Amino acid sequence: MTLIGHIIFLLLLQSSVLLAWQDYKDYQVYELTPRDSSEESLLRKLAREKPQWDFLGPIRWHNESTVRVMLPPEEASSLVSLFDSHQLRYRLLIKDLSPLVQAQRAENLRSKQRLQLPHIDVLAAFYTHAEINAYLDSLPERYPKRAQVKQFGWSYERRPLKVLTISNGDGRRNKPVILIDGTVHAREWISPSMALYIIQQLLDNYEGNQELLQDYDWVIMPVVNADGYEYTHSESRYWRKTRKPTTDPDCVGTDINRNFAHEWGHDAGSSSDPCEDIYRGERPFDQPESQVLRDILLQYSPRLKWYLSLHSYGNYFLLPWGYTNTRFTDSNRYS
Amino acid sequence: MTLIGHIIFLLLLQSSVLLAWQDYKDYQVYELTPRDSSEESLLRKLAREKPQWDFLGPIRWHNESTVRVMLPPEEASSLVSLFDSHQLRYRLLIKDLSPLVQAQRAENLRSKQRLQLPHIDVLAAFYTHAEINAYLDSLPERYPKRAQVKQFGWSYERRPLKVLTISNGDGRRNKPVILIDGTVHAREWISPSMALYIIQQLLDNYEGNQELLQDYDWVIMPVVNADGYEYTHSESRYWRKTRKPTTDPDCVGTDINRNFAHEWGHDAGSSSDPCEDIYRGERPFDQPESQVLRDILLQYSPRLKWYLSLHSYGNYFLLPWGYTNTRFTDSNRYS
Q1: Which UniProt keywords apply (chains A, B) (predicted)?
Q2: DSSP secondary structure, A10-55, as one string
Q3: Which ipTM did the prediction report?
Q4: Which pLDDT does position A7 carry in this prediction?
Q5: DSSP strand pairing (B217-221 vs B160-166)
Q6: Which of A186, A289, A182 is nearest to A230 (CA)?
Q7: How far apart are CA B243 and CA B225, in angstroms?
Q8: Which of A48-62, A280-294, B8-22 has the highest mean pLDDT?
Q9: Which residue does chain A place closest to B231, by CA atoms?
Q10: DSSP code for A156
Q11: CA distance B263 to B282
C-alpha cells in the first residue's frame, strides 16, 4: 500500500470506529416522582407503549421514590407534552448524555493505561536493571508533577544510568537535596530494593510521608553498577565489581567504592590487584559508573544536605572517612 | 531449519545458558569470631593475601561481632588448616552454597511470574469481558487450592462463559453453595465490578474473610451477558439485552432476565415485542446465556443455599417472585 493509501485507510478506520461508537448526542434523562398508584400505573403504561423511552430501574410509587427515563432527542417534546398533560411531577436531570458517556469512556481508558504501566513489588522479588529502568521511566507518567527521570551517562557495557528526582510538586526551587544511591556493589541485591522502597514510600505513600518532602527534594539512583548487577542476575550471583576489563586479561572489574579520587589508594581497604574484589582501578575515576556518580554529586553539591549509599550486609551505619579510622573532624554534625 | 536442527539448536542454547550460570557448587561459607585486635589484623592480612577468599562485610573486632568468608571448594582445606594453626574461633556456616543460590533464583523467577499475571483494580476501572476472563483464568495459578475456573458454555457470539468456584481449600466436599451472578443486563457495569470485588475479598483478603468460607463454597459468574457487555464497551454504552437476532430484522437481543421458563410470559414486566428492552424471547431459554445460567443452577441446586443476581441501579434488594407481586409463600426464610 502506498503512503497515501495508508493514510486513507487509517482515516477510514478511524471514522468507522467513531461511527460505530454511539455518542448519545442530546439524549436526555428525566426524573419523575409519582404521587400515587394511578400515576405509577400511567408510567407503567407509558413504559409499555413507548419502547424508545428507556425507563431506568423499576417503576414504583412509594415514599417519594423517583424513576428516571432516558430518551433520544426526537422523543423529548412528546414526553414533555405528555407529562405536562397528565400533570406529572418531573424534572430534566441530564440535558445531553453525550459528554458524560464520553467522559466515562475516556476516564476508563486512562485508568487502564495507568494500570498497564510497569509495576513492581519490592517486597516480593528482586528486579533486573532493565526492569528497574522501565519502572523509573513510568513514574513521571504516574506522578507528572513530582517525579522526574534524568540519565547521567552510560555504564561500560552501555546501559543507561538513571536517576529519579522526587519533589512534593509545590514548585519551590532549590530545596536542600537528599541523595541516595544503591548497587555500587553488584551482589548487594537488597540495596536497589531498598532504594525502590524509598521511592515508593515517597511517591505512592505520599500521604503518609509528605513531611519528608516539605523542605527537601530527593535524588535517588537505585543502580550505580548496572553491568555488575545484571551479571549477578544472569551469570554469577556473587559478583561485586564493575564489568570493565582490567590490565590483567584474566581479571575483570573494579570496585566502584574504591575508585573515587579522594585519598585514592591511601588506604588498607583497597587493592592494586585487578583480581581482587577491592581493586581500586588503575586511576581514580577510570570507571564510567564512578564518573557518573561524581557528576551527580557535583551537580547537586550546592544543595546537598545528606548523601547515603546503600550497601549490604552487616548492620553498619558507616560515617566518613572510609580510607582511615581517624574521626571526621566535623563529626559532631552527625551526632 | 529442520526439526532436528531446531532441537539441536535449542539443546545448545539451553546448555550454554546452564553453563553461563555459575552454580557455586560446594562453595562454602565460614563464620569467624575474632577474640582481639591481633586476630582482626590476621584476618585483614589473610583477606589481602587470599583474593579467592571472599570476606563478606568489613573485618572488625568488637563485641563478639562475626565475619563471614565465602570460598571455592579447592580453598576449603587450606582455610581450615590455617584457621586451626592460628587457633581462630570459626565454624562452617554453609557447606554448599549452590542449593541456596538456585533456590533464590527459582523463587525470584516464580515471584516475578506471579506478578506478571493479569491484575485488575476493580475500584479504578471497568473491565471488558475478555479482560475479566483473562483475570479469572489467572486465579487458579495464584490460588491453586482455593480457586477453580469452569466454562459452562458459549454466548451467542461464541464468547466463553466462565464461572469461578472459591473454597477455603480444606478439602471438605459438598459444602453448601452461595451462587452469585453479574451482568445479566449488559449496561449495568457496576455489577461485574461488584462480582470481582467479592472474588478479591474472598481470595486476596482471605485472612479477613475466612469465616465466609468456613462452611460455604462460593460460585461466582461475573459476566452472564458477555455479548451485550462487550457491546456496551465497544458500541453503545446503554445496551441492555443479548446480541442474538430476533424475529424482527430491525431489532436485536433478548432480556435474559425475562427469558427463564418459570411463569414465562405470565407477567406485566416482560414484552413479546423484540424491539423492547424487556423482550422475553420467542420461547423460554432460547438464549444461550440463559441456558448456561440454568445449567449452573441445576448443577449446584442440591447444594445451593443462596442465589444473588447483581444488577443496577435503584438500591433495591428484590426477593422472589419477579413475575407477580404476590408474596413468596416461604418468604419468612428471608426475614
Answers
A1: Carboxypeptidase, Disulfide bond, Hydrolase, Metal-binding, Metalloprotease, Protease, Signal, Zinc
A2: HHHHHHHHHHHS---TT-EEEEE---SHHHHHHHHHHHHH-TTSEE
A3: 0.73
A4: 55
A5: antiparallel
A6: A186
A7: 9
A8: A280-294
A9: A21
A10: T
A11: 14
pLDDT band at B65 (very low <50, low <70, confident <90, very high): confident
Measured between beta carbons, which residues in chain A are less than 8 angstroms from residue B238? 24, 54, 70
Q: Which amino acid is at A144?
A: P
Which of A277-291, B6-20, B282-296 is predicted with the least confidence, judged by mean pLDDT?
B6-20
Of B101, B236, B276, the CB nearest to A22: B236
Fold of B129-334: Aminopeptidase (3.40.630)
Please name the residue of chain B whose CA is at the shortest distance from the CA of residue A119.
B115
Strands (E), B6-65: 28-32, 54-56
Q: Is B191 exposed, middle or buried (0-12, 13-18, 19+ CB in 10 A)?
A: buried
Which residue in the set A48, A54, A124 is minimally distant from B115, CB to CB? A124
Angle at A161 between CA A155 and CA A163, to 5 degrees: 160
Q: Which residue has the higher pLDDT, A12 or A123?
A: A123
Please choose, from the candidates B141, B97, B251, the residue with its C-alpha nearest in 3D space to the C-alpha of residue A51.
B251
Q: Which residue has the cell 464520553?
A: A102
Phi, psi of B154 (to 5 degrees): -130, 150
Question: What rounded mean pLDDT belongs to chain B?
Answer: 91
Task: Measure the CA–CA gap between B287 and B244, rounded to whole angstroms.
Answer: 8
Q: How far apart are CA A266 and CA A280, in angstroms?
A: 11
Burial class (CB in 10 A: 0-12, 13-18, 19+), B238: middle
Q: Which residues of A touch B (CB under 8 A)?
A: 20-22, 24, 44, 48, 51, 54, 56-58, 70, 101, 104-105, 108, 111-112, 114-115, 119-121, 124-127, 234-238, 268, 271, 273, 275-277, 313-314, 316
CATH of domain A23-116: 3.30.70.340
Examine residue B53 and say whether the peptide bond preceding it is cis (omega within 30 degrees of 0).
no
Which three-class secondary structure state does DSSP give residue B150?
strand
B103-154 per-position pLDDT tens digit:
999 999 999 888 888 888 999 999 999 999 999 999 999 999 999 999 999 9
Tell me the one-letter amino acid at A225.
Answer: N
In whole angstroms, give the CA distance from residue A266 to residue A283. 13
User: Cβ(B128)–Cβ(B235) under 8 Å?
Assistant: no
**Does the beta-carbon distance from A57 to B313 stay under 8 Å?**
yes
Cα dihedral sign, A316-A320-A321-A327: negative
Q: Which residues contact A163 (CB under 8 A, 6 or more apart)?
A: A149, A150, A151, A152, A219, A220, A221, A296
What is the average pLDDT across A130-158? 97
Looking up cell 480457586 gives: B147
Query: Under an 8 A CB cutoff, do A24 and B120 touch?
Result: no
| Gyration radius of chain A's alpha carbons | 32
Every domain of chain A with CATH number 3.40.630.10 lies at 129-334
Q: CATH 3.30.70.340 occupies which residues in chain B? A: 23-116
Residues of A in contact with B316 (CB under 8 A): 57-58
| Segment holding B148, helix H or strand E | strand B147-154
3-class DSSP state of A207: helix
